[in-house]
Amino acid sequence: MLSLWLPFRWCVSMWSSDMKCSPQSIQRPACLFSSNTTRLGLDGSLPNRYPNQTDGAFNLQNLGRSALEGGDVLPIGNGAVLIGMSERTQGSMIEQIAEALFSNGSAGRVIACVMTRDRAHMHLDTIFAMLDRDKVTIFPKVVEQIRAISLRPGKKPGDFHVTREKNLLSAVADALGIRKLTVVETGGDQYQSEREQWDDANNTVALEPGVVISYERNTYTIARMRQAGVEGIAIPGFELGKGRGGGHCMTCPLMRDAITPG
Predict the structure, then answer these.
(1) Burial (0-12, 13-18, 19+ Cβ within 10 Å), 24
(2) Does pLDDT of 259 surpass 80?
(3) Taking all residues of the chain, what is their mean pLDDT, rounded to a whole number?
(4) pLDDT tens across 219-228, in order?
(5) Is a pLDDT exceeding 60 seen at residue 55?
(6) Which of 33, 170, 167, 147 has its CA nearest to residue 91?
(7) How confident is the model at residue 66, as a pLDDT?
(8) How many other CB atoms are there within 10 angstroms of residue 138's CB atom?
(9) Cα–Cα separations (whole angstroms), residue 248 to 34, 217, 230, 259
(10) Cβ atoms of 37 and 9 closer than 8 Å
C-alpha cells in the first residue's frame, strides 16, 4: 500500500558535472515528470540529491561527467533495483549508483538493462512496469532485445560481482524469488500495440499490488491487464499525455509498505 507520494518534481535531475545551474534553478520544482528528477532508494535514500531537512535547499554530490534520469530506475523489491542503460542514462552512472546503494545497504542487486537507443522508448519505465508481486507489463518489441547484467557487491568496496543474465524477465523473476512472471504485453495488433506503447500503456503506476492507473485510451492493454487479474483504473489524461508520459513518469513514491508474499 502506498504511504506517501511526491506528486511534483521537488528535486532536480542528476546533472553531469559540466552542466551549469544557479541555486535558484536547483530549488525550482518542475511539475510534470517527478520520476525523472527524483528516484528514491529502497530505504528512502537518494544517492545524489535530496532536500536539506533544515532549510529546504539541496545537498549535492558530484558524480562526475555522468547522467541518469529517474525513469530508468525501478526498485522492484526484495533488495533489487532495475536501471535502464538508455538514451538518457550512462553505464558509468549505473555503476556509481550501484556502489552507493550497496555501501548504504539499500540494495543487494542492481540489474543493468542495456536498451536500444530510441526516442520512442527513452526510459525503461516506458516499456516495463510492475503490476503486482509477480506480474509485469512490457512492450515485447523492445524488452526482448534488452541485455540484462546483474551487479552485486564484490569482495571490497567499489568492486562488483557481475553476471550476464539470460534475459530481463528471467532476471527479474530470480531477483524476486518467484518461478515465473505473469507477463502482460502491450495490447492490440502490431500497429495498435505500437500506438498504445507511444501513449504510455506500459507506463503504469501501482497504487498497491494488483491495482494500477493507466490512460483510458489504452483499451487493448487495459483489457489484457484485467484478464490477468489486475485492476486497471482508467483515467482520461488527455492533457497530461501531451507531454509524453504516463502515471509512472509523473509520480514519485516517497515511501511504500514492504511487499509481503500473497
Answers:
(1) exposed
(2) no
(3) 77
(4) 999 999 999 9
(5) no
(6) 147
(7) 77
(8) 21
(9) 9, 16, 16, 18
(10) yes
Label each residue of the chain as H, E or C: CEEEEECCECCCCECCCCCCCCHHHHCCCECCCHHHHCCCCCCCCCCCEEECCCCCCEEECCCCCCCECHHHEEEEECCEEEEEECCCCCHHHHHHHHHHHHHCCCCCEEEEEECCCCHHHCCHHHCEEEEECCEEEECHHHHCCCEEEEEEECCCCCCEEEEECCCHHHHHHHHHCCCCCEEEECCCCHHHHHHHHHCCCCCCEEEECCEEEEECCCHHHHHHHHHCCCEEEEECCCCHHHHCCCCCCCCEEEEECCCCCC
- Single-letter residue type at 115: M
| Residue 162 grid coordinates | 557481475
Question: What is the CA 143 to chain-centroid distance, rounded?
Answer: 14
Tell me whether strands 147-153 and 109-114 are parallel, antiparallel or unpaired.
antiparallel
Name 52's Cβ contacts closer than 8 Å, sequence gap at least 6.
Answer: 58, 59
CA 64, CA 150: separation in Å to the nearest integer?
23
Q: Where are the domains of the chain?
A: 10-253
Cα 192 to Cα 217: distance, rounded to the nearest angstrom: 11
Position with higher pLDDT, 190 vs 248: 190
Residue length of the chain: 262
Mention every residue, 6+ apart, whose C-beta is less than 8 A from residue 258.
Answer: none
- What pLDDT, on a 0 to 100 scale, did the predictor assign at position 127? 92
**Domain 10-253 belongs in CATH node 3.75.10.10:** yes
Q: Could you give the residue numbers annotated as active site?
A: 249
C-alpha cell at 39: 528516484
